[in-house]
Amino acid sequence: MIGTIKRFWNDESGPELVEWAVVTIILLVAAVVLYVAVGKALGGVICAVHCWLAKVKQGSTLEGNITRSECDDKENDCDK
Q1: Contact 66, 46 (CB under 8 A)
Q2: HEC states along 32-60?
Q3: What letter does residue 74 receive in the DSSP assignment?
Q4: In this structure, how many other beta carbons lie within 10 angstroms of the beta carbon of residue 45?
Q5: Which sequence spans correspond to the domains of the chain?
Q6: By CB neighbour count within 10 A (0-12 exposed, 13-18 middle, 19+ buried), where does 47 fall?
Q7: Are 71 and 51 spatial neighbours (Cβ–Cβ below 8 Å)?
Q8: What is the pTM assigned to this prediction?
Q9: Is the Cβ–Cβ distance between 43 and 79 less than 8 Å?
Q10: Distance between start and end Cα atoms, the chain
């Protein structure tokens, strides 16, 4: 019994596991904060690019000049 207690006391895998758990939690919190900070802005950019590509595919402008207001004024598919 005393040998088991000494072995348990000297085992360092428990604290190492706790360190990895703390690092993982810190990274997850940082990822969530980053997503909240830039999520909407990045989503808006992706939706604008999607709108512009859809307009080019449709050939809606013969001169090739698609303005940002054409996509911003219209309700896009990203909100659905």
Answers
A1: no
A2: HHHHHHHHHHHHHHHHHHHHHHHHHHHCC
A3: S
A4: 11
A5: 2-79
A6: middle
A7: yes
A8: 0.47
A9: no
A10: 64
